[in-house]
Amino acid sequence: MRASQLTALLVLPLFTACSGGESNKDPVAEAKFQNEKRIGNEDITAKQERDAEFMVTAANRGLFDLEISQIAKRKATSPDVKYVAEAVASQHGPMQAELKSLAEKKSIVLPASLGGDQAKLVGELTALNGTAFDRKYLELLEETHKKGVDEFDDMSEDAYDGDIRALAAKYLPTLKSHREAADQAADKLPK
């Protein structure tokens, strides 16, 4: 009897290690997979598929912007950078909540956390200090907002779903103002 208990104790960690695959999945890829699976099972048009892809991408970018802005609120050395971080954090929160609510209404799965690439960038940003941190934060913010402005602009006119079109139109000016504020703050940083 003791031998079987000992064997069970030795084998249990192996089963636990093998079953950890779920936690290793990239949340963004998993959300896209779940949406594609649902779309495959329903009579969905290419435009509806594009709407779902936009929602996943917008939510992922929003999570990333929130994360790096929370860090910048604590670590930024420039008052202008801190101001930008405060604005982004305070305005992206409601946008994320609205995205999530709309996604639930439309049966679209959104990522619950950052994708692997974004998590890596957060780690790289966190390792920096001083002006190097401020520059990298603004660079990342400008990059995500440039892409975000383009996508929100397109979807404010072209989204198949009227609610998604309205959401994109509503938050497009916010993203534009964040991008402009990041550009202005970057210009004020010492060279």
TrEMBL record:
Domain DUF4142: 50-184
Record Pfam families: DUF4142
Residues making up the signal peptide according to the UniProt record: none
PROSITE patterns, sorted: PROKAR_LIPOPROTEIN
Protein name stated in the entry: DUF4142 domain-containing protein
Organism annotation: Hymenobacter telluris
